[in-house]
Structures are given as C-alpha cells and as structure tokens.
Amino acid sequence: MKQSHILIIDDEENLRHMLSIMLCKQGYLADTAAGGEEALEMLASHAYDYILCDIRMPDMDGREFLRQAISRGVSAPIVMMTAYGAVDTAVACMQEGAYDFISKPFKRDEIVIVLKKAEERERLKEENQTLKAEVADKNSFCGLIGRNPAMLSLYDQIRRVAGLKTTVLIQGESGTGKELVARALHTSACRNGKPFVAVNCGAIPETMLEAELFGHVKGSFTGATADKAGLFEQADGGTLFLDEIGEMPLSLQVKLLRVLQESEVRRIGASTSRKVDVRVVSATARDLQAEVTEGRFREDLFFRLNVFSLQIPPLRDRVDDLPLLVQYLVKECAARIGREPVPRVAPEALRRLMAHNWPGNVRELENVIERALVLCDGDQLAATCLPNGSAPIERPSLQTDSADGTENLSIKQAERIMEMDLISKALIKTGGNRTHAAKILEISHRALLYKLKEYGLE
Question: Burial code of 128-143, b = ≥16 C-beta within 10 A, e = fewer?
C-alpha cells in the first residue's frame, strides 16, 4: 500500500522532531516546516496526504495558513494543534475548512486516531466519487438520462451507427431531446472534435434558408455584400443537424437531395461546386411517411434521410426514468439560475411529477422544475411549489396508451410505479423516518435504502 505523506507545521523544533519520529514508526512519511510561509512553499512543489498544523506560531499563525492553503486549492485534510484553552479558535478553524483539531499536550494514540479517521473519510469520499461516476455512467449516455429498456436500446443503436457516415433520421415527439441524440451521435464518432452545426429548418424563412445552408457569393442577390460559406461548408469534417426537416419547403428538398448524393454544394451565384465531407443527421416530430403520402415531402429524399432511423420514446412511456431525470434536472436548473444549496425533492412532489402525463416531454419537465425552484423556499422542493400544487395530479391508469396507440401493459413498470408510490406515502406518514417507513412497508431497512437510491427518492 502507498505510504501516506504528512506535513508537520510547528515553530517548536522538539515537537516537530517528536511527531516526525512517532508518525514514521506508525508507517507514515513525514516532512516538517517551522512556519506557515515555509509550509506553503513546500505545498507548492509537493502534494501531501495530511497536514498537522499548530495554531499559535509567529509571523503566520495556523489560522492564516489554513486560509491561504484552502485558497490555493490544497485538498489534504488539515488537523489543527492547539494549546488547552484555545479551543474556540480551533473550532473557528474547523468552520473555515479544517478537518479536526487536537489539544496539547496530546498522547500518541490521539494523533493516530485522528489521522486514521481522516484516512477513513478520504477513502469513503473516493469510493463515493467512484460510485457516483459509475452510476452516472450507467444511467446516462452522452447527456441522455435514463435506464429504461427503450433508452438502453437507443444507446446501443447510437453506438452502432455513430462511427458510420450513414444519414440518420431521429424521430420523436417535441421535447424528447432530438438534438441531444444528434450530439450523442457526433460525440460518439470519430468526428468528435470536428464542427457540430445545428439548424432548425422551420425557424428560418424560406427565402433565407437556401443561403444559410449552401452559402452565397458577393452580389448574388440584394444584401449579399460578401462571399459567405453555408452551413454545409461550416460543418465540413463534422456533423450537420437538420432539425424539423419536415418543415423544409419542397423547392429546397431537391437541392438537399443533390448535396446528399454528390457530397458537394454550390453557393448561390457560384459557377462551381465545392466538395464537403459532412455527416447529415436530421430530426422531425412529424410523420414523414404520411407527409410523403400527402405530397408535402419528397419520397426520394425521405428514403435518403431514413437510411437509419432512431426513435426516441416519449416521457410517458418511460416513467421509471423520472426520478433520475428529476434529480439531474434539479441540479442542472439550480446551477443555471444560481440557486444554492440545491434543494432535495420531497417524496410527495416526486409522486405528483410521476403521476403527470408530460405531453411536452423532458422540455416540459425541465420548465416545471425550474419554475418550482424559483418558487420554493428552504432546502426542500415541496409539492406545493409545482404548478397547481394544491390540487392532486391523477394518472388515469397504469395502463396508459403508448406512442403507437397500444396499451402499456408492462408489469415491471407498473410494479415500479406502485413501489415508488407506496414508499413515498410511507415516508410522508412517518415524517421521513426511514426505519419506521421500512416497518410499515414490511421490508428491511437495508432494502428500503436500496430502493430509495434506485428510484432517486433520497
């Protein structure tokens, strides 16, 4: 095992020498410094695992050393050493970031015990960070959050097609995160690091969309005062994301098809074409097959775009992902609006969020959470902070209709929803007492803790 390295800071040479010998016998590596300035110089060139620092020293006292060490990013636990009667100063040091303090005179065992406690804390912190990273990796993929089977299948399909130049059509309702899927395709491929260019085909007037996509030369039309590269050229080597492709006018669909077939673009007013290496990903909330039937979308372009299709499930079909999404969005929204500390979500609030049908999908959920964070006070996001917070939201049935019009008859999903509802009610009834809640639910305390973590109800 790696030996822990300790820095001992004290103006008394005898005490430094005694502590150094004692800690070396206990298996530590020890360096010493006669004051705060010397210690800061040593910390600038060496990373220590733990620091023992006297409070009363000439020139720079221990409290000032603590402040400067923390401001310089020193992360090692700092244990303050203080004479009997100066405990108030030691407590103040702990409030400012010290790990612990020990009063002089002290016995050898006292120092060792404090250091062992610090070691255990650091070990647990490291394990916790590792577990969080593993959980985050398990529950998310390139910014997409969820572990519902439909989402896991989506992640697998993204991995399969990411490295290919194949055009991909992303389909899903409004607010499901189609651009996130497009970015996941980009970042999972060898094109990561190259440009990712996104354009909403329905947000740009038809008269301007052609120039935006393909560019123009100076003087080609009124207002063209200089040559301009289009989005295809800007995305060269990377990915061009055409959102709301179903909104593209028929006149431009022909030109887009030619670019996809020839891998070259011609700026408006230019006499020659330019080769481009662009991976095209498109997305739509419309039924493009129906648009083709109605004559509003070219069939040949549809086939060219739909070489590989990715379907994003609506939020109502992956209710079991809601706790993860809520937990993630609360942190993200709180950081965005500057809300500190991040409030925890009350069980009743989560139950009500899970009972809603979410026609606006993840975008609607994000808006609701941000509004709730603005309205809520204290360290808890309560149900009353939600829209119509005083009125219950009722889910008509666990067997809700899925996107294809069939009933969702998943027993696993129904069991998860029922479990979360019962756990929430038990916690509310016991005022958050987990031991009593476990007895009411007739499960072990360990099982309850596991389920709280699994469902994001902590």
Answer: eeeeeeeeeeebbbbe
| Number of structural domains found in the chain | 3
Query: Are 66 and 179 in a shared domain?
Result: no
Domain ranges, residue 244: 144-313
Written in H, E and C, the secondary structure of 366-417 is: HHHHHHHHHHCCCCEECHHHCCCCCCCCCCCCCCCECCCCCECCCHHHHHHH
Q: What is the pTM of this model?
A: 0.59
- Residue owning tokens 């301007």: 208
List the CATH number of the domain containing 434: 1.10.8.60
Closest by CA to 14, choosing from 38, 30, 2, 32, is 32
Spell out, as residue ranges, where the chain has pLDDT lower than 50: 389-406
Regarding whether 178 and 196 lie in a shared domain, the answer is: yes
CA distances from 26 to 102, 199, 260, 418 (A): 18, 64, 70, 54
**Other residues' Cβ atoms within 10 Å of the Cβ of residue 338:** 6
Residue positions counted in the chain:
458
Distances (CA, A) of 346 to 221, 337, 362, 421, 428: 59, 20, 20, 12, 9
Please indicate, yes or no, whether residues 301 and 329 belong to a single structural domain of this protein. no
